[in-house]
């Protein structure tokens, strides 16, 4: 039996990377899908690739920097599917710039997309799940949500903030049968570093070596879908970089020395 048969799953950041791979994984598991990102043409491509019936995939363009539009987007989903069983907050942007060279506008932009946009969409969807007394909310954080790394101060700050918010949310809604999963990927082979924002607000435009040699988005997506199905509270996905979480907890001095050596000379 398919694990998400006839469940309505809403995925943001669905036009590429982890989001796109997760769309296909949920499709294989029998879900009906709402796919969101800014680029409608790319969403249409992803929809076609699911090979699902047209009515089972709702293309819903969404801009994380326009939270005032979210309540209307939720109404569109309910008009099409009547319910929302899973919300996977996956949209986000990374950063490649030092603290000194990062404009304040860059910090505001990263926070608006990675934190405030996620919080706003969650708050827009949450009443639906509370009313039906069931649902699951997942969010893409990062291993960087558990520790701080060079050249990513704003990115790390947003991911740390997600942990505080969603841990708090989980403690509030568990009695209503609403689950919360925080997903912490390490190095995944996607274009996240290419699309990262530089200190002046421009596009970084380069593939990091760690990203290029990371695990596939497909393997990452399989882990995410399994974690949501099992109702896990937090998962770490990657290779040796996942050890950083445990070094931070038990050997913080060692981790600090490792991270110092990663800083640009």
Automatic annotation (TrEMBL):
Transmembrane segments: none
Highest taxon of source: Bacteria
Stretch forming the signal peptide: none
Keywords per UniProt: Oxidoreductase
Pfam family membership, one: adh_short
Family affiliation: Belongs to the short-chain dehydrogenases/reductases (SDR) family.
NCBIfam families for this protein: PRK06181.1
Protein name in the entry: SDR family oxidoreductase
Organism, scientific name: Emticicia soli
